């Protein structure tokens, strides 16, 4: 009973009315008067505090004042964060290209024909439904191959050039279908063939490989060089535009450049194509049908 009486007494005190009077000090005339209770004072003070906190929160959240909060990034810092994020993505892409380039060089040195090189799906020109196919040689086909290789072993080409050992069985993709205007002639220093074709025609890679050079040169214009397996290097000159960069891995038949007429040593749109093996120039016509 005592506790109940104490609670009732506290509630009564909270509800008791008090008069707040403001008077003129000289005349003691009453200027303003308020009738309040403790409960009214607590209620008004609480509501005022809530409204004040809400206004301050809105003011900070939707005005530049929030930038003065310690730890909150300002506009310049946010722009730097976005720029750094873009640079990190670009750096990651460049590192992936560099790693792919090193893997290609490693495969070339080891002579494994890029079997361990990672392949992007977009880079493949082979229909996925044909990737699982396996071909076997029949007995008659094997006999025919051996007889043909034995006949060709001591055969010389028209230009007197022996076919490079170990690459005679490689299937080269034609870089450009067209008419040959100038054939290979090592005696005069023309170490390739000139293939004439329509302007803006695509130039294709002859084999899988890694781009080791893709730049502009004064005499031969835009040039791209690709390192392949078995110590083979293919060179494509006088292009209008290059589609690949150094370090990129390309597949046979993949577009690498656009046919053009760039450089000083040219008289019209054509491709000057060279094929090198172990540092020696080969006659491309002995291996590729243009």
Features:
290 residues; alpha+beta; Glucose Permease (Domain IIA); 2 domains; 10-stranded antiparallel β-sheet; two-stranded antiparallel sheet; 12 strands; rod-shaped; metalloendopeptidase activity
Task: Give your account of this protein's structure.
With 290 residues, the chain is α+β, with helices and mostly antiparallel strands. It folds into two domains: 2-67, no CATH class; 139-286, Distorted Sandwich (Glucose Permease (Domain IIA)). The protein is built from four helices and twelve strands; from the N terminus they run H-E-E-H-H-H-E-E-E-E-E-E-E-E-E-E. A hairpin with a 2-residue loop joins strand 11 (270-277) and strand 12.
Gist of the model:
This protein has 290 residues and is α+β, with helices and mostly antiparallel strands.
Task: Annotate the secondary structure layout.
Elements lengths: L1 H14 L1 E7 L6 E8 H24 L13 H36 L28 H14 L26 E4 L10 E4 L5 E3 L4 E9 L3 E7 L4 E11 L6 E2 L4 E5 L10 E8 L2 E3 L8
Antiparallel strand pairs: 1-2, 3-4, 4-11, 5-10, 6-7, 6-9, 7-8, 8-10, 8-11, 11-12
Strand content: 15-25%
Series of H and E elements: HEEHHHEEEEEEEEEE
Provide the CATH top-level class of the largest domain: Mainly Beta
Pairing-aware structural class of the strands and helices? alpha+beta
Main sheet: strands, sense, barrel: 10 strands, antiparallel
Tally of helical runs:
4
Mean pLDDT across all residues, rounded?
Answer: 80
């Amino acid at each position: 009973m005592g506790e109940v009486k104490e609670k009732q007494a506290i509630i009564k005190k909270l509800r008791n009315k008090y008069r707040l009077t403001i008077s003129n000090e000289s005349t003691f005339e009453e200027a303003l008067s308020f009738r309040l209770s403790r409960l009214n004072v607590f209620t008004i003070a609480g509501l005022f505090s809530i409204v004040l906190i809400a206004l301050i929160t809105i003011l900070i959240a939707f005005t530049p004042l929030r930038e003065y909060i310690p730890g909150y990034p300002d506009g310049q810092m946010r722009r730097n964060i976005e720029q750094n994020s873009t640079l990190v993505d670009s750096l990651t892409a460049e590192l992936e290209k560099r790693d792919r380039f090193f893997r290609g060089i490693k495969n070339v040195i080891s002579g494994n024909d890029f079997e361990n090189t990672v392949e992007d799906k977009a880079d493949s020109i082979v229909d996925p439904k044909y990737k699982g196919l396996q071909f076997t040689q029949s007995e008659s086909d094997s006999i025919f191959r051996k007889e043909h290789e034995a006949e060709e072993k001591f055969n010389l080409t028209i230009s007197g050039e022996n076919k490079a050992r170990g690459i005679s069985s490689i299937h080269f993709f034609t870089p450009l279908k067209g008419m040959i205007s100038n054939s290979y002639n090592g005696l005069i220093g023309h170490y390739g063939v000139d293939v004439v074709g329509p302007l803006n025609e695509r130039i294709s890679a002859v084999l899988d490989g890694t781009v080791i050079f893709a730049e502009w040169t004064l005499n031969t214009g835009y040039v791209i060089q690709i390192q392949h397996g078995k110590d083979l290097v293919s060179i494509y000159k006088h292009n209008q535009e290059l589609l690949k960069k150094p370090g990129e891995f390309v597949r046979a038949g993949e577009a690498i450049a656009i046919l053009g007429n760039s450089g000083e040593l040219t008289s019209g749109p054509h491709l000057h194509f060279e094929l090198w093996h172990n540092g020696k120039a080969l006659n491309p016509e002995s291996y590729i049908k243009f």
